[in-house]
Specification:
Layout (H helix, E strand, L loop, with lengths): L2 E10 L4 E10 L5 H11 L19 E4 L2 E4 L13 E5 L6 E3 L2 E2 L2 H8 L19 H10 L7 H5 L1 H4 L11 H11 L13 H7 L11 H5 L6 H18 L1 H10 L1
Parallel strand pairs: 1-5
Antiparallel strand pairs: 1-2, 3-4, 3-5, 6-7
Helix pairs in contact: 6-7, 6-9, 7-9
This protein binds iron/sulfur cluster (2 copies) and FE2/S2 (inorganic) cluster (FES).
One iron/sulfur cluster (SF4) binds next to helix 8 and helix 9.
Family: Belongs to the succinate dehydrogenase/fumarate reductase iron-sulfur protein family.
Pfam families: Fer2_3, Fer4_8
GO cellular component, one term: plasma membrane
Length: about 250
């Protein structure tokens, strides 16, 4: 059975904005994105919202619902009481373009700073071999749909915009971890050092493993346990390795 819900939606642009109240029809089985689309169709045709797949796979419809970072298309209306106010606001960590649409270019800039996978030297494509456990580790990280909800949630940048220069956020530290743990990556052989990069360029030290990023990931990737903590352990291993310490002092 349908009912009328109370929606409070943020409307505005980079200059100014405010929460506006609406009564909108809700039908059985609908998600928040359906209701936002109905609002567009019936009351505010110029309401800006980004979406593509409506299936939790493109990562476009990220926003905050009642203060919690979520995908609009994967949040069922049935999780709210019929008399509950549903407040929809844009992601807080990124600049607003208009209404629910934010400028997420920070994430693409950080992605570009990560050296890509270096294929193994001396092995032809088709001859690469990996243990199943290493394949599965990469596959978990590759489920990422780049919704940036983890980036939006991480307090290091959510509460301190200035940290964005020095901290790439969980999604991209996870990418560095994936490559650092990849048994076939030969970046190190070409003089690169992903551990050093994680610490010095991507701000791994800012992460205090609160796991908030993991809690909001719609793909249920264990970002903190499987990527960030192992990466920190590798950096610490390197730091306390007496042979590496000796080598580094000689280089200095
Ligand atoms: S675990 Fe680290 S990256 Fe994730 S939210 Fe906490 S501080 Fe940010
Ligand atoms: S790791 Fe999860 S929360 Fe972060 S961008 Fe990827 S899918 Fe989204
Ligand atoms: S519209 Fe693609 S994830 Fe929501």
């Amino acid at each position: 059975m349908g009912y009328e819900a109370h929606f409070r939606v943020w409307r505005g642009d980079a200059g100014a904005g405010e929460l506006r109240d609406f009564r909108v029809e809700v039908n059985e089985g609908e998600v928040v994105l359906d209701v936002i689309h109905r609002l567009q169709a019936t009351q505010c045709p110029d309401l800006a919202v980004r979406w593509n797949c409506k299936a939790g796979k493109c990562g476009s419809c990220s926003a905050e619902i009642n203060g919690r970072p979520r995908l609009l298309c994967m949040t069922r209306m049935s999780v709210f009481a019929e008399d509950e106010t549903v407040t929809v606001t844009p992601m807080r960590s990124f600049p607003v373009v208009r209404d629910l649409v934010t400028d997420v270019s920070f994430n693409y800039e950080k992605a570009r700073e990560i050296p890509s996978f270096h294929p193994p030297t001396g092995t032809a494509p088709g001859e690469y071999r990996m243990r199943q456990v290493d394949v599965e580790r990469s596959q978990e990280f590759r489920k990422c749909i780049e919704c940036f909800l983890c980036q939006n949630t991480c307090h290091v940048i959510r509460d301190h915009d200035d940290n964005k220069r020095a901290f790439s956020g969980p999604r991209y530290l996870m990418r560095v971890a994936e490559l650092e743990m990849h048994p076939l990556d030969s970046h190190g052989e070409t003089g690169g050092d992903r551990r050093e990069l994680a610490q010095a360029e991507h701000g791994l030290g800012f992460c205090n493993i609160t796991k908030c990023c993991t809690e909001v990931c719609p793909e249920h990737i264990r970002i903190t346990d499987n990527a960030l903590i192992p990466l920190k352990e590798r950096v610490v291993d390197r730091h306390y390795d007496p042979l590496f310490g000796l080598f580094r002092r000689r280089k200095d």
